[in-house]
Specification:
alpha/beta; single chain; DNA polymerase, domain 1; binds S-adenosylmethionine; 18% strand; 487 residues
Length: 487
């Protein structure tokens, strides 16, 4: 039997003081009968001995037996988690189960295996452990229709330790809706007035805010009477914006998802076209300022960098699994890093010693190749590159430009704010492609009509932040706004 690593998820919230519970659930037939029988017999024997010791008042003996029982259960639980389920009988419906566990406010973390799931639970409302399990079983019947379970208690301190250890190992972090709302989400809107004015928002106009973030651009548009559909792939941002903009009632709609899917997301809501689109690319300040999100090389955190904490591949997956050439290509293409090959080589050497799972370790590895020579930290370009790769940012942008443009009504405007040359180049090229009436090439006898011609560029030169914005928000320094109008 081959062992494998279960998929681990850690909640953003810390446990409350008190007792937590570790629950292991597995499909009855996923574990060989003889192994189950052996564990069950030993368990029953220890439970009987524990009862007897407790009844006779022998607390020392009872404690010894309780410890034995605990370690028996921990070992068995680890064993079944590392099992690959027997052919055809694996724990199916994993996606449903993952969603159910992530939505449960009491869940502090879980490990989802092929044969079993291990859940760290804290009771936060009047429901008991059994009721939580019953709820998971009802919501994810395919995964938990027919399961055996082991239940163990642990202190808040142990639960906290588990969360910390798993975060440090770079496990995937999720935020429950409640935790997300509790998080302070502060992002200073860049080129707010310039971008919203460019969309000519008036009463009743329908505008798509493709990068909702903290809701800054949306709010300015709502203040002009527009109806706003806001999309963000980060559920934390969506929860915070929903809360911030709730006073605008039915004028504000929040959708969690990728802007590359904007067309489908809006169609599902019965919206076939819009009067304007704003896209303020990149990440928001709370994403970069939260060490657990793993975007920053300045603070220790798991090497994550996913805007959507549920997307399958985080930065640590790339750094530890991709080939040296693939890593070098990412650093070169998306970070325009000249030392890409040398950095990739050092990464591969270092990960052979132990997996690279934290932001600071990766930053140190990069610094060992590239000593600091300018004001810019040597890891800046590599971290940007990884972030772009993890979130497929340029691929998403290409789709947004194409699909977003097709959503625009004629006279509708598209405003895009970029933060680095790769994004700006992509936007500029697209704007040129749809705004040139004619195309010409040296090998053609003369210019030909451009089949994509359907727009005019409003900003011949990009709009950049003024001195006042630059001094109050240094993060706006590389912002460029380009605006297009469909004709
Ligand atoms: C710069 S922030 C937007 C800030 C917002 N305009 C404001 O003023 O508060 C960019 C946001 O876009 C989101 N984002 C980036 N790429 C995305 C994508 N492909 N799909 C959906 N959201 C995306 C990020 O999660 C982030 O919250």
């Amino acid at each position: 039997m081959t062992s494998f690593s279960p998929e681990c998820w850690v909640a953003q919230h810390a446990p409350n003081p008190g007792v937590s519970y570790a629950v292991t659930l597995w499909r009855v037939d996923a574990v060989p009968v003889d192994q189950f029988d052996r564990w069950n017999r030993e368990c029953l024997g220890l439970r009987k001995a524990l009862r007897e010791a407790a009844e006779s008042g022998n607390t020392k003996q009872a404690q010894l037996i309780a410890d034995k029982l605990n370690s028996l259960n921990t070992n068995f639980s680890n064993h079944i988690l590392s099992l690959r389920a027997r052919a055809g009988r694996e724990l199916t419906g994993g996606n449903d189960l993952r969603a159910v566990l992530q939505a449960d406010k009491g869940v502090l973390g879980f490990e989802l295996g092929n044969a079993a799931v291990w859940v760290l639970l804290q009771l936060t409302d009047e429901r008991g452990v059994e009721q939580h399990i019953e709820n998971w079983r009802t919501e994810a019947p395919e995964a938990l229709g027919d399961v055996e379970s082991i239940l163990q208690s642990c202190s808040a301190q142990q639960a906290d330790q588990w969360q910390q250890d798993h975060r440090a190992k770079g496990q995937k972090v999720f935020a429950s809706e409640e935790a997300a709302q509790a998080t302070l989400f502060r992002h200073t809107t860049v080129l707010g007035r310039e971008a919203t004015d460019a969309l000519l928002p008036t009463e009743g106009k329908v505008i798509l805010d493709a990068t909702l973030g903290g809701g800054g651009h949306s709010e300015l548009l709502l203040q002009c009477g527009a109806i706003v559909w806001g999309i963000d792939r980060d559920p934390t941002a969506c929860a915070a914006a929903r809360k911030r903009l709730e006073a605008y009632g039915s004028h504000m709609h929040v959708l969690t998802g990728c802007f590359g899917d904007a067309r489908e997301l809006l169609h599902n809501e019965g919206v076939g076209s819009v009067d304007g689109i704003v896209a303020d690319l990149g990440i928001s300040s709370p994403q970069v300022d939260t060490p657990q999100r793993g975007f920053s090389f300045l603070t220790e955190g798991p090497l994550d960098m996913r805007m959507d904490p549920q997307s399958p591949r985080c930065a640590a997956d790339i750094i530890n699994d991709a080939t040296e050439t693939e890593i070098a290509d990412i650093l070169h293409l998306y970070g325009e890093e000249r030392a890409a090959r040398a950095i990739a080589h050092r990464i591969v050497q270092q990960r052979a010693i132990s997996p690279i799972t934290t932001t600071t370790r990766l930053a140190d590895i990069i610094c060992s190749v590239l000593p600091r020579r300018s004001k810019q930290h040597p890891a800046t370009r590599s971290f940007q590159a990884l972030r772009i790769a993890v979130n497929d940012e340029l691929g998403q942008l290409e789709i947004l430009l194409k699909e977003g443009f097709s959503l625009l009504r004629s006279g509708g405007r598209f405003a895009v704010i970029t933060f680095h040359s790769l994004e700006d180049r992509t936007v500029k090229r697209f704007f040129e492609r749809v705004s040139k009436p004619e195309l010409d090439r040296p090998e053609w006898p003369g210019p030909r009509p451009n089949p994509d011609y359907a727009a005019r560029v409003i900003t011949r030169k990009p709009i950049t932040p003024g001195a006042e914005e630059l001094s109050s928000n240094p993060r706006s320094r590389s912002a460029k706004l380009r605006v297009l109008e469909k004709i």
